[in-house]
Amino acid sequence: MKIVRERVELKGIPVSPGVVIGKAFLIDSRKVRPPEKIIDPEMVDDEVARFRQALAETRAQLEDLRQHYEAKRIGEYGYLVDVHLLMLDDKMLVKATEERVREQLHGADWALWQVVQGIKASFDAMDDEYFRDRRNDVEHLGDRLLRNLAGRLPLGIADISADVVVVAHDLSPMDTAQMDVERVKGFVTDQGGRTSHTAILARSLNIPAVVGLETVVDRANGGDTVVVDGLTGRLILNPTEAELERYRERRSRYQAYRKELEAFSALPAVTRDGHKIRVAANIELLGEVKNLRRYGAEGIGLYRTEFLYMNRDHPPSEEEHVQSYRQVAEAVHPFPVTIRTLDVGGDKMIHAVPLPDESNPSLGLRSIRLCLRERELFKTQLRGILRASQGGNVRIMFPMISGLGELLEAIAILDEARAELRREGHRFDPHLPLGVMVEVPSAVVVADILAKHVDFFSIGTNDLIQYALAIDRVNENVAYLYEPLHPAVLRLIRMTVEAGHRHGIRVAVCGEMAGDELYTLALLGLGVDELSMQALSVPKIKRVINHASLEESRAVVEDILTLGTAEEVHQLVEEYMRSRYPGVLDPLGDE
Q1: pLDDT tens, position by position, 559-572
Q2: Among residues 222, 290, 392, 394, which is most buried (max CB within 10 A)?
Q3: Whether 197 is catalytic
Q4: Which architecture, in CATH terms, is 267-580?
């Protein structure tokens, strides 16, 4: 039993900004692991029935949670419940568990646990951070099912009655949604990632949060004084009096900083010398649209559509595509919504789409390559986008185009879809803008050719950096080489912008670079016309733009393009930003 309340400092992943000081409310939410159990053949039907009863109980609990969302007036985040409800109908989870019970004579608990571990392993192998973080949804649902199988109610934290900081091994989005924001001042967990649904909800509720701390449950005691810094990812258990005073002051300064930023949400992003930049948001789900208005995003620069294909046996119908895209387009009108066509590959577990097993899925049959092979699947989505475009604010974007041949083949299928819809009497925007994501180095080399056939470019810096520098950004052995300010990356961006502008088309950046203030001046100076990012980042990027000038940004770029290493560029840019714009990289001034 832990008795001594020692000072402990841990560093994790900041996922929801803010500074909070409070008492730890310790929840040991580590997942259930059932014992291995082999059953007699005559027990099979009873075990399957027990599993199905757990499914029914879990469904009822999730429906209750949806009602809780509505009661708490956060119903727009009901899609978090929908994710888990969809999984309850997923054959990869349900059928596979029952098959293990029937064919391998595993007890229902043990069968379910093994199936969940297999699904999680598949998600872990994915390149895309958003999809990797979906493993947490599988884990949370699996744990809820296991607790129901064992007759133990899933963990609930709705009854917290004092001001606390929740400390847990992990929290599901459902746990987070039940938090009384008047009582729960922050939360910290051992597990989690930046794009997990729990992190998304924490930001929407304005609860400071740090995840990925690894050992916080083992190090903390209930009642410990806790400092949570959601800006830096720092956690201090049992801080000194001097530290408490420092973080009280830091908390006050952060509150003042957020008030200052709120003013930029309502302003256009215009430099001091009158150059206008569109600042848009990246989204996955309709429920995120509310944050666009809140933070001042000027439309959607990247709407990821993969969610429509997840946790189902068959691809979405044309009508499902139409309804999904139309809702988003109407919600952001008159601002544009840029819909990226299906971007999955052998590394992404979407069994509604025929995917081969591949040894190197990042370089395999993925994205536009898959769509060009599965033409009817692709055309169904294109027809849905076209039919949703009547309002005139929809744009379409093809991902991972590596050359003109792929682009022309994709355009031909788009033209087929247009012709079919005309014959059938469906209305759509005849001038629907078409763009490509530039995320493969070969696309940069032939950007001047591609630009003749499209209306805009959008640079996906996440993949462009990975492919250009030949690194796996999720491989801990080489992740340090993932450097957005590498001279090669900056030159690739400049080449793309110059090619686009020579042909009169706009160029956006929709990767992680767009939402980081450190890179804003460089992107402005390189001539980028639009930045698209997580909605929460919009005000801070607008602030940098509004204080900068295009002339100044171009001068900075001329300097950094003379340097030979990423380290030199990073140092120059950081020093310039700190001297010219004090407080931008470090708004609270003491880190």
Answers
A1: 999 999 999 999 99
A2: 394
A3: yes
A4: Alpha-Beta Barrel (3.20)
